[in-house]
Amino acid sequence: MSSYQLPEVWENPSQMGGAWGGLNQPTAGSRFEQELPVGEKEFQIYSLATPNGIKVPIMFEELKELGISVDYDLYKIKIGDGDQFGSDFVAINPNSKIPAMIDQSGDEKVRVFESPSILLYLADKYGKLIPQDFAKRTEVLNWLFWQTGAAPFLGGGFGHFFHYAPEKIEYAINRFAMEAKRQLDLLDKELANKRYIAGDEYSIADIAIWSWYGRLAQDKIWDKAGIFLNVQEYQNLQRWTEEIANRPAVKRGLEAEYKEI
């Protein structure tokens, strides 16, 4: 049994422990002055090759595959070192999360933060990877926002307690493994009669969901998490995962080089 006694009012502990304990704080805002590099290309992306981060280069490479002339500078934000708390990054994303992007293709620079927002922004800007039909567009958005709401239970919940937490807590692992399995089963059932997550057309919903759940199905997020969750039992999800993984644009997006800041 845990010896933890719940206080009446929570106070920030002096030491959290674990992989991210030293970075977490209960306050927002920048922690140090920072000057991020700004390249010449239309889009400036500040990110890292995490499940959320890979969505953006994949999206750009898919646009190129569709004949859109678009280019980007991709800079590495080392979240383990706290780069996301620098003043320039916080000016782009006050929430201090990757990825963050500046569109400098027009007369006025536009900041875009949170990966689903970036995907939707680019889809709408170029009229690609999202249906123009209102009902079909709504179905894509249903799944885009599903991923936005579901993935924190997978990453911040299951992934944290399975992989990052300084101690293995049975209740926490069981709680979030249960939810992760439920989400995987949901996707598997949805993909039983559909080629892609929102229907017959590949869309930003597939990019968003594959970057988390496809990579998990490949066991490429947390060491042995795929084995632990028995991801091979979800055959429809595995079929979809493999098809998207073999897309040339997806391969290029995963291989994109991040410049040092």
TrEMBL record:
Keywords: Oxidoreductase. The keyword Oxidoreductase applies. PROSITE patterns: GST_CTER, GST_NTER. The keyword Zinc does not apply. It comes from the Bacteria. Gene3D superfamilies: 1.20.1050.10, Glutaredoxin. Pfam families: GST_C_2, GST_N_2. Residues 133-261 form the GST C-terminal domain. GO terms for molecular function: oxidoreductase activity. CDD domains: GST_N_Ure2p_like. Residues 40-130 form the GST N-terminal domain. Its EC number is 1.8.4.-. This is GST-like protein. It comes from Streptococcus loxodontisalivarius.
